[in-house]
Amino acid sequence: MNISVIGTGYVGLVTGVCLADSGNTVYCVDNDENKIKMLNKGEIPIYEPGLEEIVDKNVKNGRLFFTSGLSSAVKKTDVVFIAVGTPPMDDGEADLSNIFEVANKIASSIDRYKVVVVKSTVPVGTCIQVENIIGKKSHDFDVVSNPEFLKEGTAIEDFQRPDRIIIGINKKGTHLKAKEVMDGIYEPFVRTGAPIYFMDTNSSELSKYAANSMLAVRITFMNELANLCSLTGANVDNIRIGIGSDKRIGKSFLFPGIGYGGSCFPKDVKALYKTAKGKGYDFKLLKAADEVNSSQKEVLLSFILKHFKSNIKNKTFAVWGLSFKPKTDDIREAPSLVIISKLLSYGAKIRAYDPAAMKNTKKVFPRIEYAKDMYDALKGADALVIATEWNDFRTPDFDKMKNSLSDKSIFDGRNIYIPKKMKEMGFHYFSIGR
Fold first, then answer.
1. Quick one: which of 354, 351, 358 has its CA closest to 381?
2. CB 3.0 to 4.6 Å from 414: which of 183, 360, 372, 389, for a disulfide?
3. Which residues are paired to 6 by β-bridges?
């Protein structure tokens, strides 16, 4: 099948590459000429494990192309995926200007029947709006909602071995043809039994927001619970094990920390709350989750100020981890940015290290010091702050750490070490809810 994917961010690039890897001819389209030049040189603009190898393979096999020519790509293809960004506006509502701009360009380029697939995360009713835009210029098309459920760091695996695939199609004359097309696209990815759920576009769109918001609320609950543990002397690890063994609850997303970040959870929680508010409904739980998450990013700062008696001016803090989660270079809404900003506001100095995200962080904090490796970050530092749970940090040389840290203090925002052992080794160790 000939497919075009408009937008080469995390979702668009992974979608295009995985569809090419299953035998389709795919044209990845972006209006950023520099990004297209990079991709055509074999340079991948994002860090995602396994992506570079699959890009290289499919370009060499003549199945994957990168272009800025949207109209030409649409005319060459039978299915057009829209995977452009929908960033939050100041009030939290999703900015759909990119979606509608692309829809207008697609409408002007349709020369025969097309299936237009909205892969971007969009509020309820967006597909109907896209349908109306294209319908003004063409009647030979179907608009399909196909939300993504990719996790940064495991996006290739998530696409190729999905838990489920959700497809929204509104019933009109050709909807059976669109269903047949979508079945054909995803058939290689569901051979092990993963279900494809067909529904209306409104339900499909809301499913994406609901999934991310549910996970964000679970994380928020555990963070609140961890804060209560700190006040009562309970251990959140024991509670996590206790409640996670209940099959009704399960074990996923029960690890407390310093808040969620990234391109999805913060944006989608705000957008769903805004959607509800626009319909006259006050979604109190989502509002609370957003507020708690913002405050949770400052929990480590309160530990630091208490330990150093509010005097951290000119003290040097090593920061391990800058990305919002491991296995990505994405720093959007990362707790590390809040922590660094707050420490700098108190006159502290920062020496940071991350296996993948330092290049992006330098754009935000160009004047802080960046270390060549995790141990280099510790040299002469008063304390260590752990903001991301990269595997590199889980079993370090503790003797080397102790000899490097002048105050032997570790503020662990991801609970990756055992408090008792850290105390026995002579560290001042602070974690979340333990």
1. 351
2. 389
3. 29, 82
Q: Where are the domains of the chain?
A: 2-199, 209-296, 299-430
Question: pLDDT of 216-235, one tens digit each?
Answer: 999 999 999 999 999 999 99
Separation CA 265–CA 256 (nearest Å): 15
pLDDT value, residue 176? 83
CA distance 22 to 98: 28
Residue type, 200: D
**Cross-strand partners of 166:** 197
What CATH number does domain 299-430 carry, 3.40.47.40, 3.30.1020.10, 3.40.50.720, 3.40.50.1820? Answer: 3.40.50.720
The radius of gyration of the chain from alpha carbons, rounded to an integer in Å, stands at 24
Residue 188 has what DSSP assignment?
Answer: G
Mind listing the pLDDT tens digit for each residue in 360-388?
Answer: 999 999 999 999 999 999 998 999 999 99
Whether the Cβ atoms of residue 405 and residue 337 lie closer than 8 Å to each other: no
Q: Give CA–CA dist 330/48, Å, rounded.
A: 10
Pairing of strands 2-6, 79-82: parallel
Would you say the CATH fold of 299-430 matches that of 2-199? yes
Q: Which residues are catalytic?
A: 264
Place of tokens 């809810």: 433
Pairing of strands 114-118, 141-145: parallel
| Partners of residue 351 on adjacent β-strands | 318, 369
Confidence (pLDDT) at 172? 67
Residue 256 has pLDDT above 60, yes or no: yes
257 contacts 223 by C-beta, under 8 angstroms: yes
Query: CA angle at residue 342 from 341 to 343, to 5 degrees?
Result: 95
The first and second tokens of residue 1, run together, are: 């099948």
CATH architecture of 209-296: Orthogonal Bundle (1.10)
What's the Cα-to-Cα distance from 64 to each of 13, 29, 114, rounded to whole Å? 11, 11, 20
Q: 77: burial class by Cβ within 10 Å (0-12, 13-18, 19+)?
A: buried
Measure the CA–CA gap between 165 and 146, rounded to whole angstroms: 8
Q: Give CA–CA dist 190/183, Å, rounded.
A: 10
User: DSSP state, 263?
Assistant: S
Collapsing DSSP to helix, strand or coil, 181 comes out as: helix
**Nearest to residue 216, comparing CAs of 136, 298, 141, 283?**
283
Q: How far apart are CA 377 and CA 372, in angstroms?
A: 7
Alpha-carbon distances, residue 194 vs 126, 179, 343, 421 (angstroms): 27, 17, 46, 43
Q: For residue 403, is pLDDT > 70?
A: yes
